[in-house]
Design goal:
The protein is mostly helical. The chain contains eleven helices and five strands; from the N terminus they run ββαββααααααααααβ. Strands 1-2-5 form a three-stranded antiparallel sheet. The protein has a two-stranded antiparallel sheet with strand order 3-4.
């Protein structure tokens, strides 16, 4: 697989292949710098604080990689895999700025979405924003779901407002990306197993880079390899 980080020292290159099977594209230099910067920021955040404790015996990086791996294994598209990788980045942004258990941590999905919105597509940003709402929806749909959550997740559910009312549940389903958020929620809850082998962070950052380029539209032009 092409290592997207090899282009950091060659940011002026106009022709590159992001992943096997993705055609070479011509990129405006400003667009190239933009997506390289976004992917680099993500790697820097995970490198700096990704090994901090998450829950259930895994750290934040392990949880992100497990969640993204589950998404990829079930055939999710690049945007949804990227959302799976980055859905909890709000925790990492808040880490060190709020005491453990502080109410601000209960709003990590908003912090994540606000950060992602200036760097990634709506398909990534809104799924990350809705992944807590998806937990509240599933809690309302099936009370047994609550007991399937980890102890930490049950505790945070209370901080996040608890199970939706019937009206709130219906409003959630009307959200554009609610179905993808529900898929992400299942992977999120399953991605907390110590010792699970996953692809590397670079593997998923290459997917994130691909998703960014695919979303550029007029910023890119497909050419023959």
């Amino acid at each position: 697989m092409y290592n997207c980080y090899s282009i950091y020292d060659n940011v002026r290159f106009r022709y590159l292949t992001i992943r096997t099977g993705i055609r070479v594209r011509t990129l405006r230099e400003s667009a190239l710098v933009g997506w390289v910067s976004a992917v680099h920021e993500v790697k820097e955040i995970f490198t700096r604080v990704g090994e901090s404790h998450y829950e259930s015996g895994v750290n934040h990086l392990e949880h992100a990689l497990q969640t993204a791996h589950l998404a990829e294994s079930e055939g999710a598209d690049n945007a949804l895999i990227t959302a799976a990788l980055l859905h909890d980045i709000g925790h990492l942004i808040l880490l060190g700025t709020a005491p453990a258990g502080h109410a601000a941590l209960a709003e990590h999905e908003t912090v994540a979405a606000n950060w992602l919105s200036s760097r990634f597509s709506e398909e990534v940003t809104e799924v990350a924003r809705l992944h807590v709402a998806a937990k509240r929806y599933l809690s309302a749909l099936d009370p047994k779901f609550v007991y399937s959550l980890s102890a930490d997740s049950r505790t945070s559910l209370a901080l996040q407002g608890g199970a939706f009312t019937s009206v709130e549940a219906e409003q959630f389903l009307q959200q554009k990306f609610s179905q993808n958020a529900l898929r992400l929620r299942r992977w999120d809850d399953a991605g907390k197993v110590p010792g699970v082998k996953t692809p590397s962070l670079n593997h998923f950052l290459a997917i994130a880079a691909t998703q960014l380029i695919q979303g550029m539209g007029s910023e890119t032009e497909t050419v023959n390899e």
